[in-house]
Specification:
Elements lengths: L1 E2 L9 E5 L2 E6 L2 E4 L1 H7 L3 H14 L1 H26 L9 H16 L4 E13 L3 E11 L2 E9 L10 H18 L5 E7 L4 E7 L16 H15 L12
Parallel strand pairs: 1-5, 7-8
Antiparallel strand pairs: 2-3, 3-4, 5-6, 6-7, 8-9
Helix pairs in contact: 2-3, 3-4
Length: 244
C-alpha cells in the first residue's frame, strides 16, 4: 500500500456531556456516531445483552467486556503502527493475542489496500456528528472507509448492522467535508481464530440493484440515520438534510 496524504484530518478532543460522548472540533461540540447508534439501538439487542449478563453473571460479564476492550485497543494500536511503518511490542497475554489477530488482518486484508489517505481519522459532518474511523483510502479500487473490528467469536451478518451504519455515517461526513465520493465501507474483522471481510457497498444502489448493507441503499441508510438522530433528540437536523 502507498500513502497519499491529500486530506487534512482535524485534531480533536473527546469529552462527555451528560453521558453523551462528544468530539470538540474547532468551535463545534458534536455527538459521536457510536453514541447516536447506542441511543437508538433495537430494544431486542439490549434485552439480549441483559439475558447474556444474567446467564454468565455480572462479574464474568465485566471481565469478558474489559478483556475484549483491552485486546481491541491493543490490536488497533498494533495495526496503526504497522501502517505508519513502525512496530509495537506488547508481551502481555492480551497483547500477544492482539498482535496475532492484527497479523491475520495484515496478511488477509491489507493486500487489497492500495492507497492510504490517513489512519485514526477524525471525521465530522458539520453541525451534526463526528467520529473516528481506522483508515480512509482506496480499497480494491474503490474510495473506502475501513474499520478494524475484533470479537471473541464470529458474528452473524445481522449482528453487525450498527457497524455498517457507522461506516455510512463516516462516508457521508467525508464526502461532505472533502468532496469525495466514498463508494463503500470495509470491515476487517478478526476473532482469535478467524478472519472475515465485510463489504458494505452503496454505489449505484438507487434502484435497489446492489448488494451489501443487507439491502440498505446509501439513501435508505441516510433516511434511517436521520430519523433516529431526531428520535434520540441528541441533535436536530436541518430540514434540508431530511430526505422524503
Amino acid at each position: 500500500m502507498k500513502w497519499n496524504k491529500q486530506f487534512i484530518y482535524p485534531k480533536t478532543v473527546r469529552s462527555s456531556v451528560d453521558g453523551v460522548r462528544t468530539y470538540d472540533i474547532g468551535q463545534e461540540k458534536l455527538p459521536s456516531v457510536t453514541t447516536i447508534l447506542q441511543g437508538t439501538q433495537d430494544p431486542e439487542k439490549a434485552e439480549s445483552l441483559a439475558r447474556w449478563k444474567a446467564r454468565v453473571g455480572d462479574v464474568e460479564a465485566e471481565r469478558i467486556k474489559n478483556t475484549a476492550a483491552t485486546r481491541g485497543t491493543a490490536m488497533h494500536t498494533y495495526l496503526e503502527h504497522h501502517v505508519k511503518g513502525g512496530n509495537v511490542l506488547d508481551l502481555t497475554d492480551v497483547g500477544r493475542e492482539a498482535s496475532s489477530m492484527g497479523d491475520m488482518i495484515i496478511e488477509k486484508g491489507f493486500p487489497d489496500m492500495e492507497e492510504v489517505w490517513g489512519v485514526e481519522c477524525t471525521l465530522r459532518y458539520p453541525g451534526l456528528y463526528a467520529g473516528q474511523t481506522d483508515m480512509c483510502g482506496i480499497y480494491q479500487g474503490r474510495e473506502s472507509i475501513i474499520d478494524f473490528k475484533q470479537s471473541n467469536k464470529p458474528k452473524r451478518d445481522e449482528w453487525i448492522d450498527d457497524y455498517k451504519l457507522q461506516l455510512v455515517a463516516y462516508a457521508m461526513a467525508h464526502d461532505q467535508v472533502y468532496g469525495t465520493s466514498i463508494e463503500q465501507g470495509v470491515i476487517l474483522m478478526c476473532t482469535p481464530d478467524n478472519f472475515s471481510e465485510v463489504h458494505c457497498k452503496w454505489s449505484n444502489l438507487e434502484n435497489g440493484n446492489g448488494n451489501g448493507c443487507d439491502g440498505l441503499t446509501h439513501i435508505m441508510a441516510y433516511k434511517w440515520l436521520n430519523i433516529n438522530w431526531q428520535k434520540c433528540q441528541i441533535i436536530k437536523l436541518p430540514k434540508c438534510l431530511v430526505k422524503s
